[in-house]
Amino acid sequence: xxxxxxxxxxxxxxxxxxxxxxxxxxxxxxxxxxxxxxxxxxxxxxxxxxxxxxxxxxxxxxxxxxxxxxxxxxxxxxxxxxxxxxxxxxxxxxxxxxxxxxxxxxxxxxxxxxxxxxxxxxxxxxxxxxxxxxxxxxxxxxxxxxxxxxxxxxxxxxxxxxxxxxxxxxxxxxxxxxxxxxxxxxxxxxxxxxxxxxxxxxxxxxxxxx
Amino acid sequence: xxxxxxxxxxxxxxxxxxxxxxxxxxxxxxxxxxxxxxxxxxxxxxxxxxxxxxxxxxxxxxxxxxxxxxxxxxxxxxxxxxxxxxxxxxxxxxxxxxxxxxxxxxxxxxxxxxxxxxxxxxxxxxxxxxxxxxxxxxxxxxxxxxxxxxxxxxxxxxxxxxxxxxxxxxxxxxxxxxxxxxxxxxxxxxxxxxxxxxxxxxxxxxxxxx
Lengths: 210, 210
Description:
Two copies of one chain form a homodimer.
Chain A (H helix, E strand, L loop, with lengths): L10 E5 L6 H10 L6 E3 L3 E2 L14 E2 L2 H9 L3 E7 L2 E6 H9 L3 E6 L1 H10 L4 E6 L3 H11 L4 H14 L8 E4 L3 H15 L7 H11 L1
Parallel strand pairs in A: 1-7, 1-8, 2-7, 3-4, 8-9
Antiparallel strand pairs in A: 3-6, 5-6
């Protein structure tokens, strides 16, 4: 009887600008958590698998027709088209895990997170912030994958997206990674200590006892 | 820029039935935290100091007249009379610490917590629960200070007070003390990561930078 909400898992959405480090934070959170208690949401996509990618682990790889059918059935928490390929978060997979009492981690960009919030407002929305715009610029430049123009575009997108932070429950500044991971873990633990509707069930146990 | 709410502290109210272990949990939380960041609220009382008790540390000791004057001025977050003595939580001391950016811990019974909630709804209310009524009975009996009659009265009071749990934000079951302390610490960290009104200030810094 250590957890008032042990009956169902919680959906944690980690989101934020590109370069804020949400991927690294999610990996650390998962690596340092009990896999029976927490799982990563796996996206579905129509793009071709790259070398080494495993179906059902990296992504669920489907055809465009299969994807469109699922969209039609309302089978996604969110979906989007990126460079001609579809990507989406399959609702059934997420709900299945939650019902089994497992938390689900969703790592997603800000537009995606806002769509998830519409579909699943009970989720816990965490915005990962870089410590400063200067650091973000440095991180994006350091990747060496994007042109200066792309980086400038990303930074200006970041600034405009910051205003969505008020839609989120939590905000974690990723300056020191260990500190950020500690905060994220604390958020998970704290959310499992919240007084929720199923507290009544717990209280009934106390009353029956006496 | 590691903490979006570094400008003002937060008031944490730890409350629950007698024997749930809220005192032990608060002591551990304080002992394991930076004293610059978190402080215990010290009560004011009209009772005589006992040997070893220090004014301003154990309690603020005042006369009945001083106490009544403070009540009249609305100077308490809550106050109560117990066995002919007055006890209260001085509002000015708490607010002073919060303004200095320090969190304040308030360890208080359920009736007191409900009064604090009226006076300071921004507080974070944590209900400490014993793992079961059987364990609570054992703890109260083990103290050896109360008669069977008193213990039975306490247990029945506990059962009726459990319904107030819905007024609280969090609920921590104190079965394993280490686990309970970890949860309480996580709640403190998580609350400091919440998206609050002063997030705007943080965002302005990002915008000014670019």
